[in-house]
Amino acid sequence: MYPTLSYLIHDLTGLDVNLPVPTFGFVVALSFWAAYWVFTREFKRKMAMGGIPPLSVHRLMDTLLLCCGVLGFAGAVLLAMIEDPHGFHYNGLNYYGGLIFGSLTYLVITRFKGIPFAVAADIGSPGMMLAYGLGRIGCHLSGDGDWGTVHTAPAPYWLPAWAWGCRYPHNVIHEGAYIPGCGGAYCTELVEPVYPTSLYEAIACLLLFAWLWFLRRRITRPGLLFALFAFLVGTERFLIEFIRVTPRYAFLGLSQAQYISLLYIGLSIFMYFYALKSGSNAKIVPIKT
């Protein structure tokens, strides 16, 4: 794994470059930039269609980036501490905490700018999915503890062993046993291989982003795209939690993320019927061939 960019550069090029930038932080910054680009594109498209009032998109995005970033980070820290107060670390923050606090901040600011709730939610859906997928790449590359349960079964012939069961050498949280001969600051790896769940989530969410990006011009009834996003992100996270190492509650044996996932699925159902009831003139735009 690559706790800093120095490790990544060395693995890719063989060069020893002193670049102690945390890989997780670098990828998170990249995910913010990618989400900024997607959000900007969608705001401009909706404004050109007359779906939102005229506004300075870049000024709005600067405000959103600052406020949602700060409050989203606070939410990610808060829910991570609630989920596991004894094993909390700043590298593996709680995604749902960031999503909930950041989303509420986003909706308050956009509502203040005169953008309807359902339209603002649709605009944000692809960008949120993209940011999540890219963020999970950072989790996997750095080995921040967001991995799965022990998985020692042989890998299928068509799949690399590290994508089936990974020991996360040089992980950023110093988990596991010492790597013989290692002289760096990150010299541990897991004793047994585990499911690389952060990698699975990254692949799934990037594919789901591509689907939402494809559908955004075709689903025009306000709120439906967000309903689909909420259902997809809730279902994906609920299922992956069954093979993740996560604290679980006695009631039903589910994790914090699974309970929140169920709320997101419930929200998606509510938004679906809300969109059907409130957007009578909207339609699905046929795909042009």
Topology:
Elements: H1 5-13, H2 23-49, H3 57-83, H4 95-112, H5 117-142, E1 177-178, E2 188-189, H6 197-215, H7 224-240, H8 256-278
Antiparallel strand pairs: 1-2
What features would you describe in this structure?
Helix content is 57%, strand content 1%. The protein has 8 helices and 2 strands, in the order H-H-H-H-H-E-E-H-H-H. A two-stranded antiparallel ribbon has the order 1-2. The model is unreliable at 280-289 (pLDDT under 50).
Which descriptors apply to this entry?
mainly alpha; 8 helices; 2 strands
Strands in their spatial order, largest beta sheet:
1-2
- The class by helix and strand makeup works out as mainly alpha
Number of helices: 8
Count of β-strands = 2
What is the helical fraction, as a range of percent? 55-70%
Nearest-integer average pLDDT = 89
Distance between the termini: 44 Å
* Largest sheet data: 2 strands, antiparallel
Order of helices and strands: HHHHHEEHHH
Q: Report low-confidence residues grouped into runs of 5 or more.
A: 280-289
What's the shape? globular
Strand content: under 5%
- Rounded radius of gyration (Å): 20 Å
